[in-house]
Specification:
Helix content is 67%, strand content 0%. The chain contains four helices and no strands. The chain has helices spanning 2-29, 66-99, 108-139, 142-145.
Length: 146
Amino acid sequence: MKKLGKVKILAIASLSAVVLVASIAVAQSVKTDRGSGQGPRREWQGEGAKRGFHGGGALNRLNLTDDQKAKMKQIRESFAERNKPLLEQLRTKRQELRQASEGGTFNEALATQKLTEMAGLQAKLMGERFKLHQEIHFVLTAEHKT
């Protein structure tokens, strides 16, 4: 009975990791056309902190001061530098996960292990992105926030 509990926990953890990874992969690959009538949408550029804060984003429409723009740039660069090792770890785990199915055989135990490791790293990255948004929000004036 005790072994069955461990199997269930492992199955739930594996499924949760797969769902998390799949949802992030889908979210990163989906392109939307919102039809805002503001002309063609510019693509996001860069990776990690660079995405979403330029190239037609909401912050560009706020008429920020030069000082605010400089602070935003510094915040993004700091985020990118701070999270470079984390992003590299995730990239490595993805490569290791792909190796789980090389040679025509699927190593379920290795895949489960890598997905579980990736889930923890992705949770850390989500926390860091939340901090990034909070730092950016702090730079905005009350008028900008409305």
